Amino acid sequence: MFSEMINDLKNGCLPEPTPLKKRLRFAFTKKLGIIKQPYLLWPPDPKQNPPATHLLWAAIILEDADSIALATDILIQERHEKMAARAGSLKGKNIHEREAVIQSVLQDLNTLLPPGSLQSMMQEKIRKFFY
């Protein structure tokens, strides 16, 4: 669903904002419907179940604070559901764990980008919303 965005980033350019915004809204609709289901019923296909990391990356690119907050919440919910399915259950959400997950996803985005002005621009966007 976000392969074009990822390819653009790998090639050192930002994706077009208008189609990315439409894709992000559509992906949020899909993702919110999926995470309401039991984890074992979640489809593995990224076109049906867009990765939460990609939602967060797109929201950062668009500099949309509401989408960043929603994507972050979805990311944490997704991680907890996966862990609960593997370990049985989780009690409460640990704020330190939340920070670690977010930092890991942001580092993955930074690693994806080629060195240069796009990487610097994205680091500024990340600082704007997370530091």
From TrEMBL:
Origin superkingdom: Bacteria
Name of the protein in its database record: Uncharacterized protein
Gene source species: Candidatus Desulfobia pelagia
